[in-house]
Write a structure and sequence with these properties.
With 405 residues, the chain is α+β, with helices and mostly antiparallel strands. The chain is built from 14 helices and 13 strands. Strand 3 and strand 4 form a beta hairpin.
Length: 405
């Protein structure tokens, strides 16, 4: 769909159609078809697997300082860096069980814990991990990378020269079936919701390593799909390219002009052997054989199909870079960036967070499963640390400084 007005009309119509209303829900199957529940873990059978390390939790870095640029010294790119980046963003965080049912949770939140988002790393040689440039798929169940595409030195150079020194790329895709299985026509909404969570998780994980993540807005979805090796996928379980993030040390310059100029260039994709220039429009089109690995089947069958998701996905697909008016240097106003680290402990923060709902000490105690005396102690400590006059003043100060999320 190339006409902007028609695309916008399709998106707005989808938005209206998939709203819940008093007395009725948006269209879905209406029940949980457990026999077709999608596998939450995508794997590429036959792709070489590189195991990552489970990095031990330490006192540093803390969460709040990561949001103050320059507050965390950049960690050098290497095996530990890659391991920690994915461990802190897209990895499994816990396993839960009820009776015979057992399921995993992840660091990045997901609607219905269905996890439609897949993550990819595009990098040059990484010390302790790989001596050649490549495109990798992240497998959270194994905490490992699957090497899907080997890049030549020339190909990586064509990409790396557009990045700050030492930079890497992270790509994200969505599998709409994982959400539509449960939510029907609203599945596309939840995929957008979840990829936003994944972007935020990657950005926070990068900040904890002293790096910064930025969207490569000039990259089209079709070019990104080719780079990640998902352009040949089809059917309900196909991955749809969402976005590309450029990650670089916070002390490295990556100006708006550089971000605007970044592209999956003709030379880079031709070097990959997966694209050439189309004589009709100067665009790139797929040519070569598939990357390593065959995607696993997620469901034995797919039941109800929701064509409206295909329509809105086509309407929102990025086919051209943004116009010049899109690009500007953002102005960020956030008092927590100036205030830096929170003086409050995790428990003091919890108490203030519950206290701002207006509950009594007894209410707070019941909510947090602690004694009323302990609540009073935490409130007194929080008031002192924030130099506040009373509980309400402590809540106000904490909110203004970004210490209460």
């Amino acid at each position: 769909m190339s006409d902007p007005a028609e695309s916008l009309a399709t998106v707005l119509a989808y938005h209206e159609r998939t709203k819940h209303h008093p007395g009725r829900f948006a269209r879905s199957l209406g029940h949980m078809d457990w026999a077709t529940q999608p596998d939450p873990f995508r794997r590429f059978a036959g792709a070489p697997v590189l195991s990552l390390d489970l990095v031990r939790f330490e006192d540093q870095p803390r969460y709040e300082p990561a949001f103050l640029l320059g507050n965390v010294p950049p960690v050098p790119l290497g095996r530990r860096w890659v391991s920690q980046l994915f461990q802190d963003s897209l990895a499994l965080s816990a396993w839960k069980q009820a009776g015979a049912a057992r399921w995993s949770l992840r660091v990045n939140p997901s609607s219905g814990n269905l996890h439609p988002t897949e993550g990819y790393l595009i990098a040059g040689p990484v010390e302790g991990l790989a001596d050649k440039p490549a495109v990798y798929h992240y497998a959270p169940h194994e905490h490992a990378l699957e090497r899907r595409v080997d890049l030549s030195d020339e190909t990586w150079a064509a990409l790396a020269t557009q990045l700050p020194p030492g930079g890497v790329l992270v790509g994200l895709t969505s599998i709409y079936w994982r959400e539509s299985w449960k939510y029907g026509e609203r599945g596309f909404r939840y995929c957008q919701h979840d990829v936003g969570h994944a972007m935020g998780a990657v950005a926070v994980a990068a900040a904890g390593l002293g790096w910064e993540a930025r969207l490569c807005e000039g990259v089209t979805d079709s070019d990104l799909a080719r780079l990640l090796g998902v352009d040949t996928q089809s059917g309900p379980e196909a991955e749809d390219a969402d976005c590309l993030l450029a990650l670089s040390p916070q002390d490295a310059t990556f100006s708006i002009d550089q971000q605007r100029a970044f592209t999956l260039s003709d030379d880079a994709l031709t070097e990959l052997g997966v694209a050439q220039r189309s004589p009709s429009r100067g665009r790139l089109r797929a040519l070569s054989g598939p990357p390593r690995g065959v995607p696993n089947r997620l469901s034995p069958e797919h039941g109800q199909h929701w064509p409206v998701i295909d329509e809105v996905a086509g309407a929102t697909r990025k086919t051209e870079p943004p116009l010049a008016s899109f690009w500007h240097t953002p102005t960020l106003v956030n008092h927590s960036l100036a205030a830096g680290d929170s003086p409050l402990t995790e428990r003091e923060t919890d108490v203030l967070a519950v206290a701002r709902t207006g509950g009594s000490v007894a209410d707070i105690a019941r909510s947090l499963h602690i004694s009323e005396g302990t609540v009073r102690n935490y409130l007194s400590s929080a008031i002192g640390k924030t130099s506040a006059r009373n509980r309400a003043d402590a809540i106000r100060i904490a909110e203004q400084n970004g210490w209460l999320l």
